[in-house]
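Example noted here:
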Amino acid sequence: MSRRYRDPFDLFDELIKEIEEEFERFEREFERYGPEEGGKRFGPYIYGFRVTVGPDGKPIIEQFGNVKSYKGKPLISEEREPLIDVIERGEEVRVIAELPGVDKNNIKVKIIEGGKKLIIQASGEDRKYYKEIDLPTEVDDKSAKASYNNGVLQVVLKKLKGKEEKGTEIKVE
């Protein structure tokens, strides 16, 4: 019996078709709970995912948008979850968030839990964003600098010094 090898692009096309069918099912479910049934209408429905490979070689799947699954049913939020990158390099942690369609005056960035978590909130005319990010290390909240350009928010944070064990050097006689 000979094996039949498939083109990887065929597999990708099948995956896209399954995602489209799932969205159609979500949409039918959302329509069942329209305003006449007490449901809230807002849109558009945004869902996406990104697959990257972590340092241990295992794939990491990150979701973004305003469509989530709760107990097997679609759950829509008015706030979108932006796509985020957290880059730890040297003595700093850099957080990059995609927030298209908002004015920089409508973006709030907050560090909580003693420098362990970052919260990003933003709103525009027709969209809202919200994301809580667990930082890879504690940061100095007084050193934080944020900039926003062309729909991309960049927050640069200095790692908190003095948290590592400094120790005392002992002279060997």
